[in-house]
Design brief:
The chain contains 15 helices and no strands. By secondary structure, the protein is mostly helical. It has 2 domains: 154 residues, no CATH class; 115 residues, no CATH class.
């Protein structure tokens, strides 16, 4: 079975919590003991598919911290060639799963991202953006800021918006726009304050800040990133208030963004019909 077939099957079946925990834990054990050999991205894809399934329920059922722990554990184990290191990761998670030792271990997450090959890097970034989404949802601000800082350390905005696009259709609420604001924040802005501040769908000042920061980020010559439209439209159009967007007071320097913004407003209007 191809990896795409397996992950599609996971998405279609919409596994229950107990089934997801059993599947991920079993894969972690098999890989740790060397009983499972697979292409490197496969276990990352399975963890991402499982978490995307769960994300569709987060609007009425908060993210399960134990499931996040098991997903991070599987991802870390899948990237280590050292059996002793894999066994240590697995043991920490299994002995006291409620302590979330791997989820809270930002050094583990940093090493995982640093060692990741190109073949699974974008999927891994999508996975950790989804974990970040869950942490923000659960109110774990300090850990969320650490995950964001580690995940975005290379500063490649188009790459990050592409990774966000992969998870946006499965999410609800206002958290993806918060992550976009964090990506575009100036150095003077505190990430924790962005997490706790109003979203731009109810505050025109926040929306103005986002576009002004994006204008500064891309400068006067770069083209706008179409993925920005996607991550702001797909899950959140129903939150948009027309007057908030129509009354924006912006001084943009980028010609492409000046041309793109009216199209974004038009698309927001269509989504809200």
């Amino acid at each position: 079975m191809q990896s795409s077939d397996l992950t599609s099957m996971i998405r279609r079946k919409s596994l229950r919590r107990e089934e997801s925990l059993w599947l991920l834990s079993t894969l972690s054990e098999l890989y740790t003991e060397g009983w499972l050999s697979s292409e490197e991205p496969l276990l990352i894809e399975i963890g991402l598919a499982t978490l995307l399934n769960d994300a569709s329920k987060w609007s009425y059922d908060p993210p399960d911290s134990v499931l996040l722990e098991v997903v991070v554990t599987l991802a870390a184990i899948s990237r280590s060639p050292d059996r002793a290191y894999r066994l240590d990761i697995l043991t920490k998670s299994r002995q006291h799963p409620w302590l979330l030792q791997n989820l809270r271990n930002t050094d583990l997450v940093r090493k995982l991202l640093e060692d990741a090959p190109k073949s699974c890097h974008e999927q891994l970034i999508s996975l950790f953006f989804l974990v970040l989404y869950a942490l923000i949802y659960r109110g774990s601000t300090t850990l969320a800021v650490s995950y964001f800082t580690i995940t975005t350390s290379k500063g490649d905005l188009p790459f990050y918006t592409s990774a966000l696009t992969a998870i946006a259709p499965s999410t609800r609420g206002e958290i993806i726009p918060i992550i976009v604001r964090m990506l575009l924040a100036s150095q003077a802005q505190e990430l924790a304050s962005i997490i706790h501040s109003p979203t731009f769908y109810t505050d025109s000042n926040v929306l103005e800040e986002l576009f002004q920061n994006y204008d500064l980020h891309i400068g006067a010559s770069e083209n706008t990133d179409p993925n920005i439209i996607t991550v702001l439209l797909i899950p959140f159009g129903h939150l948009y208030s027309g007057p908030t967007v129509q009354n924006l007071c912006l001084e943009l320097k980028n010609p492409s963004l000046q041309e793109w913004l009216p199209n974004w407003i038009f698309l927001m209007d269509l989504v809200c019909l």
